[in-house]
Predict the structure.
Amino acid sequence: MRIFTRIVQIMFILAGLVLTCFLAFCWIKPEALIVMCKYIETNLLQSGLLGFVFILIGIIWLVYWFDFLVRSRTISIDNPHGKVRISLKAIEEFIDTKINLQMKNIKSIRVKTSLGSHGLETVIHMKIASGYNIPELTSQIQELIKNYLQDVVGVERVSHIEIIITNLTPSEEETNLETEDENEKTTD
């Protein structure tokens, strides 16, 4: 696949360079365009076949490229009875659900996974309630996710799990205490 992609890329780059040089030459000498049109008219079959081959190779390359994109959004696991593919979207939803069930102090979460050269890379954006030890909490979350991915999902290589805290919101207890204090001040 990579060799075919490189060959097609080089072929289209060369064709683009030739076309660019031809158009630049036609801009300098407009009569060259007339000569080229006459050449195409006399060799219509060869010109048509060349254009058809370029279009066909471009379509084949696009099909392979889309197939690569779909395949790169899944993780393949070999089982004794065949191959199992798990989409990265399913893994993202799995992580989201597990964190929300296990950790009650998380207000919202957004998970993004990708496949890197060293394994599965996970970036988590979350809003958490204040009043918790953030390094300890994030370490627990990272360990929980790593264990779930390796034990439950079957991902062997977890590259890294990055957590980004986007917002610290007051916990419900702090909010209740603040409203009680405000109520006491207004009644006094």
User: Anything to note?
Assistant: The chain has two domains: 2-72, 87-174. Strands lie at 74-79, 82-87, 106-116, 119-129, 158-169. The first helix runs from residue 2 to 28.
